[in-house]
Amino acid sequence: MPDGQVLELAGLTKRFGSISAVDDLSARIEPGQVTGFLGPNGAGKTTSLRMLLGLVRPTSGTATIGGKHFSELTSPLQTVGAALEASSFHPGRSAANHLKVYARAAGLQTSRVDEVLGLVGLADVAGRRVGGFSLGMRQRLGLATALLGDPGVVVLDEPSNGLDPEGIRWMRSLLRHLAEEGRTVLISSHLLAEVQQTVDALLIISRGRLVFQGGIEDLADPDEYATVVDSPDRAGLSRVLDERGIEYQLLRNGFTIRHHDPVEIGGLAAGAGIALSNLQSKGASLEDIFLELVSGVRVHESAGAAAPSEPAPDAETPPSTTNLDAFPAPTGAPAPAVSHDALSSDAPGPDEARPSTALVAVMTPPRTVRTAPEAPEAGPRQSYAVASTGVIDIVSPAGHDDRAADRPADQPLDQEVPR
Predict the structure, then answer these.
(1) Under DSSP, is residue 104 helix (H, G, I), strand (E, B) or coil?
(2) What's the pLDDT tens digit per position in 61-92?
(3) Is the CB of residue 255 less than 8 Å from the CB of residue 229?
(4) Angle at 31 between CA 29 and CA 35, to 5 degrees
(5) What is the pTM of this model?
(6) CA geometry: angle 231, 236, 240, nearest 5 deg
């Protein structure tokens, strides 16, 4: 049975020009469990996995597998099995031949091909060309490629993408089985609900930085959980809670009680002889906590540092002001002055001055004098007609002899013009 390896990311950083895809990422992935790698689009998940697999060189920091860089592994395919995308297949090659190419390149027995095809459920389509596979079938073939060398480390990017509900359940059970064998399983995913049912530990990043690392049970604060209890005898249950001074909120699904665990509430109900129809602990969903973490609303202590705050304005720099004395006085007759009494008077008078702009100097931008284009000489305008063949004919206006345009100046009007 292959041994799982510890995956270590230490100060991992990758910059593409001025863009920082991964910024000082440090994490540790242990064997024997399924670790979920979460983050929104563009968070740096795929870039981090590529640096781990030696496909991208980091700007700084290290990514090791069992204490070694990927380039230092003696048998890479038998140590790490990875599937980062479901499109790296030749469309004209069959599924079996695709795996045989990888097996021969890694020095593996071709008999392993039939084993992994049966493991991922593609034994019946081993001879079909990959170009006719659906996305879910391509995902299974990518997983078969990753498991071809029977590795101790399995790295999968969005493994459930394109799978139907039955396929997702199968993938979940397979990943759990691989982890129970002692392998290191690292998967990235956007399907938060699916991750919650599959993984043992979480690694969440946002904008290339770590925002959480730990178990699912460590994701939410214990005070965020509440006990939900219900009984056919709601009046009797509420009386018991009131006698003990326990605060509750009665909702449609029962009583919601905070700061008291289900064991305590169940014991009180049993002591009072009240049958319960529901008793559970309910807390914040993984999706809500995930969104709060990646948006910076929530900061977890496992991130190692507080979320960056907005830079405060410099106290020594005075606010920008406008000096009205710097504007030149407006030219022309000065506007009439308006007294304070006139502005504050409530009773209008017949000779009361209207508010003006005399209180603020207003600069009038210089006008640019534009000369109007010379008008064309007056005369009859010609029109145009387009025939169905695309030929454009000039149509002279009524009362205008179109032959005059072709007549020399010294030729009489009654003489024909040769055409």
Answers:
(1) helix
(2) 999 999 999 999 999 999 999 998 767 788 89
(3) yes
(4) 50
(5) 0.63
(6) 105
